[in-house]
Description:
Blueprint: E1 2-7, H1 10-26, E2 31-36, H2 38-42, E3 46-50, H3 59-64, H4 66-83, E4 87-91, H5 94-108, E5 112-115, H6 127-134, E6 137-140, H7 144-151, E7 157-158, H8 162-168, H9 177-183, E8 191-195, H10 200-214, E9 221-226, H11 236-239, E10 245-248, H12 251-256, E11 258-263, H13 267-274, E12 279-283, H14 288-297, H15 306-311, E13 317-320, H16 326-338, H17 340-357, H18 362-378
Parallel strand pairs: 1-2, 1-4, 2-3, 4-5, 5-6, 6-7, 8-9, 8-11, 9-10, 11-12, 12-13
Helix pairs in contact: 1-18, 4-5, 5-6, 10-16
Amino acid sequence: MKYYLIAGEASGDLHASNLMRSLKKRDEEADFRFFGGDLMLEQGGVLVKHYREMAFMGVIPVLMNLNAILKAMALCKRDIARYRPDVVILVDYPGFNLKIAKYVKPCLKIPVFYYISPKVWAWKEYRVKSFKKYVDEMLCILPFEVDFFKKHRYKVDYVGNPTVDAIANRPFQDETFNDFILANRLPDKPVIALLAGSRRREISQNLPSMLKAAKEFSDYQLIIAGAPGIAPDFYTPFVEGRGVRVIFNQTYRILAQSSAAMVTSGTATLETALLSVPQVVCYKTDFPKLSYWGFKHILHTPYISLVNLICGKEVVKELFARLFSPDAIRDELQNLLSDKAYRENMLKNYRVMQDVLGKSGASDRAAEIVVGKLMKRGG
């Protein structure tokens, strides 16, 4: 069968590539064409456009690059119409992908599957109407999304979380602390990990306060997990003269050997919890008081971190907007490192979260549903 996939950022490229691998196990004649990245290209098929040419975040960058975005959208529609796939699989990236769904479903009569639902439970809940109208199958990766969509009378499938797969299949799982520090020429001191975000603006906002909060913990070494796509020299002004290391392409290895972590919100909070590392979530915003008010009165979610959302309660401290400060981060870091009961309670809740997420195999379960549904349609 012919599959057309659309992923618009690095995480989508990763999860889509794993889905493609699983699809090939079930469909030996699988043929792929896609908007995506290098990881998807490794699975075979034709890369029509790289996500790097479409990864514009925020109102101003989107407006400044609107013409490029519209051209990419037009190209995508034309290409799907020419290719005539058996299915179009959308991977997150809602601003772009929903517009494609609104074309593909009514105009081309091609089934549309969505893998990794956009976070409409937090923002833009009205988009559920579009899902119901233009998306044939929604494959969710967060367990609470099933109940959310059920409230809207929209049946979805929970396939498991691909981050669980990534952690389960990571390399260096048996690495010792000594192996790690020798491989990276690090001192023999316990580690505090800093995950300051994946974009330059996030890093610029969060990293200085993280470093300030951690400077009093002289018995520990600070290691920054370098973000993919960020040049090493971008970090230089932040770490120069501080004795802080930036290590790239080893996020899971760094976390696995860390005593605690400071983490910006996002998938990184889930990865940190799955690796059983006590953490504090810290995220600086512009206009902190206004941002906090908006979170409390506009967003439809009580938490910003996936850990707390999955558990349905505060497991990790969320220091964002007006709650964000170096002093608050330092105090929480002190609790994580020194209060054994506090640490153990967090780790216990992590284990509950891991049970809720279920076992690895999200990509395989998603592929099984995709192929199974298409076979039924064809039959």
